[in-house]
Backbone:
């Protein structure tokens, strides 16, 4: 799995919580992550793919491999809400409205990550998802964002109660980033 030539990738995100997860996932592929903190101008878009394409556009002209991602928490019984608005909803209201709305609705939910990689004029997208349900009340202090209310399928603990390694074993972000790692192995630096 390890690439013959270690390579460096610039990961551009405003969210510090995503950095260790992404770094640990890419390490076995010989990828060293350099974090550049940046606030993107996110378009009003219905799909993560559109947001990621806009982010890739903003890093045009940057040197080497540049990695961005956008993620969301999707609840099918709420027509996919909060989805692409996950960050805004959490900042404005916390978990309470979601837990209230789900009192009388199915609790299935999933996280989805779209990772975008750019090198020069080329760009590639990679998708990862993890399915589960919304817990009745928040639990745990690990992770970030919606982790305290997400119970992965087959688990009795939320993502926020898991170790970073356990979350990384199955998470949407790790699944997308493993695809990035596999793609980079053997490609020219
Ligand atoms: P983004 O930074 O625009 O991708 O916003 C995604 C938002 O979705 C974050 O601010 C979190 O609220 C939520 N989110 C994304 N990934 C995760 C995760 O791994 N755990 C918990 N919440 C997440």
Residues:
């Amino acid at each position: 799995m390890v690439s013959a030539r270690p390579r460096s990738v610039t990961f551009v995100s405003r969210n510090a919580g995503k950095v260790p997860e992404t770094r640990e996932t890419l390490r076995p592929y010989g990828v060293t992550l350099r974090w550049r903190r940046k606030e993107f101008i996110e378009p009003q878009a219905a799909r993560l793919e559109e947001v990621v394409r806009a982010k890739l556009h903003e890093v045009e002209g940057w040197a080497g491999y540049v990695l961005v991602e956008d993620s969301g928490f999707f609840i099918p019984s709420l027509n996919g809400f909060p989805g692409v608005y996950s960050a805004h909803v959490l900042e404005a209201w916390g978990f309470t409205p979601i837990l209230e709305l789900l009192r009388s609705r199915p609790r299935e939910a999933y996280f989805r990550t779209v990772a975008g990689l750019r090198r020069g004029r080329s760009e590639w997208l990679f998708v990862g998802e993890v399915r589960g349900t919304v817990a009745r009340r928040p639990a745990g202090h690990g992770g970030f964002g919606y982790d305290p209310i997400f119970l992965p399928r087959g688990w009795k603990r939320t993502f926020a109660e898991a170790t970073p390694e356990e979350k990384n074993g199955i998470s949407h972000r790790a699944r997308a980033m493993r695809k990035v790692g596999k793609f980079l192995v053997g490609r020219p630096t």
Summary: The pocket of inosinic acid is lined by residues 15, 70-73, 86-87, 90, 111, 143-147, 159, 171, 173 (CB under 6 Å).
